[in-house]
Amino acid sequence: MVASTKSVTYTQFRYFVALARELSYRRAAQVLGISQPTLTSQINVLEKSLGIALFERSRSGTLLSPEGRSLLPHAEDVLQASIRFEEKARDIAGGNQTTYRLGVPPTLGPYLLPYILPQLHKRYAKLRFYVREAAPTQLVQGLFDGHFDIIISPGSQDSSQLVASKLFVEPLKFVVPSDHALSGLRYIEPEQIHGETVLTLEEAHHFHHQVHELCLKIGAQVTRDYEGTSLDTLRQMVVMGMGVAFLPGLYVHSELHQPDELHVCELKDTPIERQHSLVWRNTAPGRVFFRELGNEIRRILSDTLGHAVKVDS
């Protein structure tokens, strides 16, 4: 393959890194928010520009070529340097950056942000957030790519490039139809849901995997026939008697205005919870402020939602 004289663009660097991480044109295109043919075309142009094959393609899947493995760390360095350049330029231009791009999961944002954003605006008069929702894996990828400045994400982050400040632990509540045999009980034994049909959200959502693991442990059946696309859909499926489910505590606190339709309870001695953290890149110019922001969010949560979640100290 003969290299051309055309320069590699920042966009091509992004596409190469995303595909190298996902090793799937379909998944990488979804993460990037572009069509699969666009990604394929740009990777082909990049390989032609460099004069080397970056990937091995076969019917069994996509793999990095040896040349691609060698170049990947350098491409990641280019992206990180570009992100730092843009962040520093915004800081210099504005004196202090006042608008941050905040990413949150759709199963959390609508039920958390109304409690904390008004209070943060009172505390920091010039602070603004540009909020976007995405699945947890997309939030982390967006943080790496510079599409987000900070995210609120469930689970732990094991990347040395990220800093996670724990905010709170949210319980997952067990809900059954009002006419279910377990309706009326405050706590139920785990073995009491042995054999039950448990509904859950699609795999992209973090607590899908928590629910699946718990059900495997106690002998309940997670159905794959009816996976909800939203918490409201999941709730309605339970109301219609299609099964039982676990719902996030903040959703239950904010949205269950008709308790006669559902019964909410908890598993005895078997808490199922999800940890939420404020996460940012360790190179972010605003990293000192982000730590302060985490402290302020915890204070607000203690005052407003301390009865619904466990706030980290």
Short description:
Helices cover 44% and strands 25% of the residues. The protein folds into three domains: 10-83, Arc Repressor Mutant, subunit A, CATH 1.10.10; 88-160 and 276-306, D-Maltodextrin-Binding Protein, domain 2 (3-Layer(aba) Sandwich), CATH 3.40.190.10; 169-273, D-Maltodextrin-Binding Protein, domain 2. Strands 3, 4, 5, 6, 7, 8, 9, 10, 11, 12 and 13 form an eleven-stranded mixed sheet that branches. The chain has a two-stranded antiparallel sheet with strand order 1-2.
Structure description:
The protein has 313 residues and is of the alpha/beta class. It folds into three domains: 10-83, Winged helix-like DNA-binding domain superfamily/Winged helix DNA-binding domain (Arc Repressor Mutant, subunit A, Orthogonal Bundle), CATH 1.10.10; 88-160 and 276-306, D-Maltodextrin-Binding Protein, domain 2 (3-Layer(aba) Sandwich); 169-273, 3-Layer(aba) Sandwich (D-Maltodextrin-Binding Protein, domain 2). The protein has helices at 10-22, 25-32, 36-50, 66-94, 109-123, 136-145, 206-218, 231-239, 249-255, 287-304; strands at 55-58, 61-64, 99-104, 128-133, 150-154, 162-177, 187-188, 197-201, 221-228, 244-248, 262-267, 273-281, 310-311. Helix 7 (206-218) links the parallel strand 8 and strand 9. Helix 1 packs across helix 4 and helix 5 (109-123) packs across helix 10. Keywords: Activator, DNA-binding, Transcription, Transcription regulation. Belongs to the LysR transcriptional regulatory family. This is LysR family transcriptional regulator.
